[in-house]
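Minutes, project huddle
Topic: does the predicted pose make sense with 3-methylcatechol bound?
PN asked that the exact inputs be recorded in the minutes so nobody has to dig through chat later. Recorded below.
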Amino acid sequence: MTTTQESPTAAGSGSSATEAFRASTLHSGAGTDPARVSAIVSKLLAGIHDVVRDESVTYPEFQAAKQWLIEVGEGGEWPLFLDVFVEHAVEEVAARTQDGTKGTILGPYYLPGQARLATPATLPQRPDEKGVPLVFTGHVRDTDGRPLAHAELDVWQADEQGYYSGFAPHLPDGNLRGLVVTDAEGRFEIHTIQPAPYQVPTDGPTGKLITAADWHPWRPAHLHLLVSAPGHRTITTQLYFKGGQWLDSDVADATKPELVLNPADQGDGTTAVDYDFVLEPA
Ligand code: MBD
Ligand code: FE
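Predicted holo structure (tokens), as shared on screen:
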């Protein structure tokens, strides 16, 4: 596999995701019905037992697995590992009962409480922020086609090197994050830059597993969004870029054809794209 960037020393981006998760409310809300716990955990364990038998897993392999699991916890990489390798299946189940714009996984790098910006909005960025400028416009509507005024687009993205603010110490807090509010016609206009592909940190336990299995550690370039409006079900989604590297082999298996943007070159080095969101009643 070729890589387009130097391996980032992730120095903490995975473990900062554990702190962000603990500070969030994402870990509350599941029930504790013993029958449910038993059903899920029994099947999970049976799946592991099947692998052990099918692959004739040895004692050294079992102990190596234990060591690796300890390192994932100590390195604070459980949110990273689970969101990369498991969340897409959970999202698939959630999508069975969701109408409107396709959703996809949230991932480990969402941070609530960003600046609220009226449209047209420019995402907070450094004075010398690198990357191809992108003007991202569209409307938020309900499933009957009615525009949703004052809907919120909570947007976050990596920079032109694939790093997220809040998880990379060299970036200012809130960089390339913002909560953009639609106007009276449900329209939004967001000025930003095109992100780079994201590489799972190669220096942590998740990256070491990826290397050990000879997989690649890349996600295609993407914008993250939570799109919400009062009385409507929030959509968690991501938008990708046509022709982008890793689009067909996302390590997190979270792409969908409906979520691929095709920005038009404006002839002056900038790009622009329109994309509409549809929210169902809550
Ligand atoms: C990301 O940027 C991401 O979006 C996901 C889902 C997992 C790891 C890093
Ligand atoms: Fe991401």
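Observations noted during the meeting:
- The chain has six helices and 14 strands.
- The chain has a mean pLDDT of 95.
No decisions taken; revisit at the next huddle.
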